Amino acid sequence: MDISSILQGGYQHPLSRQWQSKRQLTKSMLMYPIFITDDPDASQLIPTLPGQSRWGVNKLEGFLGPLVAKGLQSVILFGVPMSCEKDFRGTPADDENGPVILAIKKLRSLFPDLYIACDVCLCEYTDHGHCGVLHKDGTINTEPSVERIAEVALNYARAGAHCVAPSDMMDGRIKYIKRSLIDNGFGNKCTLMSYSAKFASSLYGPFRDAAGSAPSFGNRKCYQLPPAGRGLARRALQRDVVEGADILMVKPAMPYLDIIADAAQIAPDHPLACYQVSGEFAMIHAGAKAGVYSLRDMAFESVDGMLRAGATLILTYFTPDFLEWL
Ligand code: PBG
Ligand code: ZN
User: Fold this and answer.
1) What's the distance, Cα to Cα, between the start and end of the chain in Å?
2) Cβ(123) – ligand 1 distance below 6 Å
3) Angle 28-313-100 (CA atoms, 0-180°, nearest 5)?
4) What mean pLDDT is predicted for residues 46-57?
5) What's the pLDDT band for 132 if we cut at 50, 70, 90?
6) What was the pLDDT predicted at 247?
């Protein structure tokens, strides 16, 4: 056997196998997506998202306390209004007494060291279920969309969010939000994480169930990116760097590892997030249930791919499991 043929000597031990990775998953890389609803005492299991629930603000201490004790360091909040009046501009999104603003304040006081990010979008709060404000013909009206989204982001920052994360995919919103954060004294108090390369994916189904945010007509293909559009994703990432994003995100994660690698090359000096979305999580659970693999092994393998591609922050519903497993 030639000397140059032998690799196995280098990874024969569990420890030397670990040395083959540039970076390993740590608890600080995990951000846990949670759903907050407007019934303050709710804890409603979400059938399509195994083990995940919609929570009322009164339940947050009991739900998150044990996770914080295990090392949970950050969450991203999604509002799920069940009993409010939705309208054309998503008025309930930043209601002072709505679930997100109440949850930010509650979490800041309960867990002073917990990092609180807020998803910013209108689809959970508009009567049509789209992520922006529409023209009469149902197309996106960019200017008022961006204004409204920036207003919501600012109000989350005012309530105490450490990070605002617009997921709407409207053109120009990063610049507009950054400007309004700066002009209102939050330039140095609130991080802007952009869902920069967010694709029009089939993997958001369970989330839309959970959040009640499916569009009432049409689809999101005129603002979320076409799945085969690698060049467009690169342009979106470049744009958001220029417009002032502090953190970039690629979403979903597993079918888009090439885009994560592109983002790491385009913006090597920014933290890079990826979102292992609801459908990816449900799919991994379904495979495990069908006996295809062990849930734990597959969860780690999925995240190893994201780290290899260059992600430094991972939004995942597996966060409570990883806190247990790590
Ligand atoms: C809202 C939003 C969505 C997700 C995050 N923010 C759904 C969508 O765009 O339809 C998906 C998250 C997931 O599937 O876990 N704009
Ligand atoms: Zn949306």
Assistant:
1) 39
2) yes
3) 85
4) 97
5) very high
6) 98
| 3 state DSSP class of 3 | helix
Q: Which two tokens stand for residue 272?
A: 């890079």
Where do the H-state alpha helices sit in 243-312? Answer: 257-266, 278-289, 295-309
Distance (angstroms) between ligand 2 centre and the Cα of 169 equals 8
Which residues fall within 8 angstroms of residue 51, CB to CB, at 6 or more apart?
45, 317, 320
Taking the CA atoms of 34, 37, 40 and 41 in sequence, report the sign of the dihedral they define: negative
- 26-325 belongs to which homologous superfamily? Aldolase class I (3.20.20.70)
Q: Give the start-to-end residue ranges of the domains of the chain.
A: 26-325
Among the listed residues 322, 278, 320, 274, the one whose alpha carbon sits nearest the alpha carbon of residue 298: 322
If you search the block for the tokens 């006081």, which residue do you land on? 109
Q: 219: alpha, beta or left, given left = phi > 0 and alpha = psi -120 to 50?
A: beta
Q: How many other C-beta atoms are found inside a 10 Å radius of the C-beta of residue 208?
A: 17
CA dihedral 131, 133, 139, 143 (to 10 degrees): -110
* Interhelix angle 295-309/257-266, nearest 10 degrees: 30
Concerning whether 221 is annotated as a catalytic residue, the answer is: no
Cβ atoms within 10 Å of 131's Cβ, excluding its own: 26
Tens digits of per-residue pLDDT, 226-239? Answer: 999 999 999 999 99
Is residue 198 annotated as part of the catalytic site, yes or no?
yes
Torsion-angle region of 93 (φ positive above 0: left; ψ -120 to 50: alpha; else: beta): alpha
CA of 142 to the centre of ligand 1 (A): 19
